[in-house]
Structures are given as structure tokens and as C-alpha cells.
Amino acid sequence: MADLDNFCHDIVSYANKTSGLQSCLPTSLKHGGETRPWRSLSGMFSSVDASREALVRELKPRKKEHLIARIDVDLLKDIVEFLSVFPPLFDILEYANVPTLQNALPVYYTLYQAWQPDSNDTESLLLLKRHFLQILDAKYWTSLTMLHFTASYLDPSLKHFRFVTDLNDRDGFFRQVREAIISLVKEPYVGDVPQVSAADILTNKSDTSIMTDLPPAKKMKVSPFDWFQSPNQDGVSTANTPASVAVEPLKDRVLKEIRKYETEPSPGVTGFDPLCWWG
Q: Is the CB of residue 219 less than 8 Å from the CB of residue 203?
């Protein structure tokens, strides 16, 4: 792949320096770059592949046909197919005016699904998929925290976790996210009665956790739910009330709201802004 990268860069550099060449091509050749490298690589390889026949025709009279002749056409097509998943995923992770945290989890599953081996894959494409699936699990999955799971759950367009194809995993995600939300709401009401803290759930250390394969999460310094964690937010003073009495009615109300939220129709819209919905 490194050789192909260099060869394509040489073609693009030559085309940019040669007057009139770019205008003869069906697609303008694009350079790869250090900024957003995967998107850049995808654009460069795709543009060279789309203009390959025209390049053969245009480079021959210029005695530069060796620039395109040394490119492995089959490998180029494999890499173009492999990288095609990146641009649309990067788009939803780079919105400027809407939240993107909730997209991290479905992006993982989209990449995981896209890179599953297929019987029609060439050997080079299979090698790419296997290699990047290992990287996906080793680096991407381990960087996901309960905050990402909760953010996806609180986005009405993603709340059903339909991107999780394993139903057992999906049920496990639902249960742990509900536990995390309930614990975050209960935390200000805890007295002398031992409780499972929100931090324990967010760092996956709770004895009640049913997802032992969830990646460890970093402990949050500031809870995103601070705005509704007022000790008297239910209008009932808890100063002289046992914690067990104060917590249970609140938990019941939270569960009721969770069930109501889960049964509401999903917007199912790409680029949906959950902050506007919740606002």
C-alpha cells in the first residue's frame, strides 16, 4: 500500500504541474494530506481510479505513461472499496453545530460490519479487513466509555441500538445504560446507605454490571447531568428522611420516564440534533 500511495502521489503531483491535464480528466485528481489522512487517501485513490483510462490516454503522448503503468489496478480498486466507508462516517463525526458524541458507538459498529470478510473479496482486500478489524477492536473499542453508550441512548434516532446486531449485546447495553442513568439521578440522595455510585458504573467497576466485556471507562471529573442533580429537584426535602425512603420514589419516576422515552417513535433522521429534541 505504501508503494501505491507514492505512485498515486506522483501522478497527482505531475497532473497539478502540467498545464491542461486536469481539465482532460473526468475527475480532478486530489492529493492526500496530513489533515484527515483517511479521508484524503480515499479521495486521492478514488480520483486516480476514476480517471485511470483517461490518464493512460493523456500520459502517453507526454511520454509519462510509466506513471500509470506501474500502478496495480486490482490493488487500487480493493483499496478504493475498503476506504469508501470512511468519508460518510467522518462527515457525521465532524458536524460543526450539532453534537457528535452519540455517533462514536454506531460508527464502530458500522466499520465492524463493513469490514466483515466476504466470499467475493480478493486476497489483498481480506488482508486489509482482517488487519483493520484488529485495530478497530484494539484501539477504537477500548476508547469507548459508558458516556458514549449513554449519549447514543439519549439520541432518539439511535436509542434502539439497532446497529448492534447481537441481541444479547443489545439487551446488555440497554440494562447498563439504564443503571447508569438511575445511579446518576440517585447519587445526590444517598445518605448512610451504601449505594452503587455513578462513577463505579461509568468506569465499569460495579458488581451489578452485566457487561464484563465493556471497555474500561475513564472516570468523569464533571458529570454531564449536573444541571438536573439538584438535591431537592423533586420538591421533597430529604434532610431528615432515610436514604432508602427518598431514593425509591425517585427511582420509580426515573424508570417511568425511561420507559416512556423508549416507546416514543424514533426520528430516524441522519444528522438529527438530539439537543434540539431534548430542548
A: yes
